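Your task:
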Amino acid sequence: MDAPLFDGELVHSNRIIYTPSPFARSSLLHLQEVGTLQARQPHTSARKNLASYLFFLVERGSGILEYDGIRRTLQPGDCVFLDCRKPYLHRTGEDLWNLRWVHFYGPNMGAIYKKYQERGGQTSFHAIQPERFSALLQDIYTLAASDDYVRDMQIYGKLVDLLTLLMEESWHPGDACIAHSKKQNLQEIKDYLDAHYTEKITLDALAERFYINKFYLTRVFKEQFGQSVTAYLVQLRITQAKRLLRFTDNSIESIAQECGLNDANYFSRLFKKIEGVPPGEYRKQW
C-alpha cells in the first residue's frame, strides 16, 4: 500500500487512511489513520464529534493544544492522548513543529480511556522516553503500509503496546509528589491485605489499624491501585481459590475457609460471578 504524500502551503505530511476489516472493526482495537506532519506555516486544526482516540508526539518545534476547557503549551517530547468525541484544537508555534500521530478506536476504548484517567493519566504529558512512542508509531505506519494478510492483528498488538506504554508513563509531572506520597502511605495497607486476606477484614478495621479515614482510604486506594479495597480482596481470595482448586484435593468448604470466606454457598456464588463457572466445574476444567 502506497502512503499518500501531501505537500501544501501549510504542511508536508505522510499519512495512511486505513480501512480495517469488519472483524477488526467490531472486535479489536483498530487503526483509522497514522502519519507524520511537518508544519510549513503557523496554522490551526480543529475537530469534534469524531468516533476516534488520538495520540500524537511532538518531535520538534512547539505548539498549543486546547481541549476540555484547558489550554496547554506543547514542547518536543510532549505526548497528547485525547478522546476526539470532545472538541479539540491544536496550532503550531512560530518554531514550526513536527508531529507523529495515530487515530484509532475499538469497542472497549471508552472503558480503557476512563481507566487511563483514573490512574492519573493526563491529556498531555512529557514522555520520559519519547523514542519508544516514536518507534511504536513508526511500526504501526509500516504495518499499515504493508500487504501482510494478518496486519490487522499485528496493528492490534502494536496499539495494545501503545496503550500499555501510556499507562506506564502517563503520570502528570505536577502531581508526581502527591501521587508518590499517596502510594507510600497506602502500600503498607496493600501489603497487609496481601498477607492477611484469609482473615476477616473490614474497612472500619483497616482504618482503625492504620489511623486513616475510611472514606479517604476508599478513594485513594482506588486511585493508586485501580480498584477498591473490596475488589482487591476478592481478587486475592479468588486467585488463591483457583490455586487450591487446581493443585489440591481440598473440599469446596475447606477452600472457602482457607480464602477467608467461611460461607461455602456465598463463596460458590462469588466464584461463579467472577469466573463464570462454579468452583467444582472450574476444578474439572483444569
Remarks:
- Residues 48 and 185 are 41 Å apart (CA to CA).
